[in-house]
Amino acid sequence: MSDRSRDLAELRAELARVARGGDLVERTFEVVALVEEVAAPLGSHPVVVGGMAVYLWTAREEFVTYDIDVVMEVPRELDEHLIALGFSPVADGRHWRLEGTDVLLEAPGAEVDHDAVIAEIALPSGRSAKVLSRVDVLLDRLDEFQATGHQIVGQQVLVLIAGLSVDEDTALDARAAGRRVGAILKAMRQLADDLESGRAHPESDELHEIARNALRAEYSPRS
């Protein structure tokens, strides 16, 4: 057995072990850290995005997802390495299920935004994993909420806004216009203030109206 094959065999055994761990967040990031070990030599670096990134920054149980969404390039050699680690390709070639576990790894995109900030999470094992920053996760959620008006996404936006530091708030303001989410950010900040003052949480229809008005403001021709 070659050194490379032995390394992959060892990583496969370690992956199978951590994928059955108890804590969902720790398990998720340990899986991503082990994928990074085979991806990094190929120039690919998985970055956790989506629901698990929201959960990491909010610690709100209602936002938990069990799929692991990452942004990373997937050259053919990396796909082969993932299979060697015990992943089975699913559907469109950008989804892999880890055999014998409930782990579903998804890579819906190849690159994060050019100005995205990536955080590095230190893990108990000594490994580390990359995740989209709180500000970038919020920018993505604002964009999705503006486009869809979905209630759960709106709730995520409100919780993410509530937890921003002063520096993060400043960074968010600086980047919102470039992402064309300035209007929805302003509207959701106002809603967050109103909720803090005691108003009732909006129903789905109101959230859709907030999203439509912001989208109209961002994309209507300006005189």
Can you give a write-up of this model?
The protein has 223 residues and is α/β, with parallel strands linked by helices. It has two domains: 3-132, Beta Polymerase, domain 2 (2-Layer Sandwich), CATH 3.30.460; 135-219. It is 53% helix and 14% strand. The protein contains nine helices and seven strands, in the order H-H-E-H-E-H-E-E-E-E-E-H-H-H-H-H. It has helices at 3-18, 24-39, 50-58, 76-84, 134-148, 151-162, 166-176, 182-196, 204-219; strands at residues 47-48, 67-71, 87-90, 95-98, 104-109, 118-122, 128-132. Strands 3-4-5-2-1-7-6 form a seven-stranded mixed sheet. Strand 3 (87-90) and strand 4 (95-98) form a beta hairpin. Helix 5 (134-148) packs antiparallel against helix 6 (151-162), helix 5 packs across helix 9 (204-219) and helix 6 (151-162) packs across helix 8 (182-196). The longest helix has 16 residues, at 3-18. The radius of gyration is 19 Å and the shape is elongated. The termini are far apart. The relative contact order is 0.11. The mean pLDDT is 91.
- Uncertain ranges: none
CATH class of the largest domain: Alpha Beta
Mean pLDDT: 91
Neighbour order of strands in the largest sheet: 3-4-5-2-1-7-6
- Count the strands? 7
| Approximate shape | elongated
Describe the sheet with the most strands.
7 strands, mixed
Number of domain units:
2
Strand pairing plus helix content: what structural class?
alpha/beta
Strand content: 5-15%
CATH arch. level architecture of the largest domain: 2-Layer Sandwich
Query: Count of DSSP helices?
Result: 9
Q: Nearest-angstrom radius of gyration?
A: 19 Å
Q: Give the CATH topology of the largest domain.
A: Beta Polymerase, domain 2
